[in-house]
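[Automated response] Your request has been received and processed.

Submitted sequence:
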Amino acid sequence: MKRMKKALFPIVLTLALSAVAADREPDPAYRKSVEDWRVHAEQGLRRDNGWLTLAGRYVLKPGENMFGTGPGNDVVFPAGLGPAGMGSVFVEPDGTVKVKMVEGLVMRKGDASYTEREMGTDLENRDWVCVGPRACFHFIAVNGKTVMRLADNQSEVRAKFGGRVWYDVDDRYRVPAKYTLYEPAKKIPIVNVIDEVSDESSPGYVEFEIDGRPYRLDAFEEDHGMFLIFRDQTAGDTTYGSGRFLYVDEFPTPGKTFTLDLNRAYNPPCAFSQYTTCPLPPRQNILKVRIEAGEKYPPRKLT
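Generated structure:
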């Protein structure tokens, strides 16, 4: 699940030990910190080769995979992203991925150009290369498969994106919470949007109240921080139907009160691109309450 947090944007939630009154306006400094965080989130989404630019996701077969815009290729890119035949991807038995371009085409990475290249498949350090003015791609090894992900920095989705939409910052949703460890850690099956299942380790759970009623979320580990996948009763109405994410940059001390800031709940990549494979919230993380905080759906579109 690491890809979800890092690909979107760096996210920082500040842990605090004091409870917050629910009936007052947010402190101006706090409001500004959330608004600044949201600006950073917007910038991260709009970057080159970001979620808005994705134009294809292709599961490769072992051996040679020819790619280009022509219909006879194993991997067919959308029209306009290059010539009919562009090259071949070779998936070796040991998982090594190599790309060889057709004569006259090169891959670019920074200032370097290549006609052949061994490609990285690390999810956290994406090895992007570009061919021509529009097509860029990288590879990931996931669940025993090798996936080629294609970006088009001139995509229509990116061109028409008008901005993320957020609820107003509301102190009611900056709530006292408590983190409790599972001993031992609990394995939880997580299903993604294409029905793949992976067993993820949950080291503990978070408990909090909204309007005096208790709620609980199983937590996952992500880059030494706490990652929450949840859905509430705004889903499919004012927020994304599959659910939202929340990240805390370090795990709270078990048994001690900290502040959980639901104003920083954000949409998964699947809210912006059909070429992603986001995890869905487990059943126990579907809350019977409207959390009218954080990111809304759909985003704004330019006409």
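Summary generated for your ticket: The chain has two domains: 2-47+163-301, 51-152. The first strand starts at residue 54 and ends at 59.
If you did not submit this request, please reply to this message.
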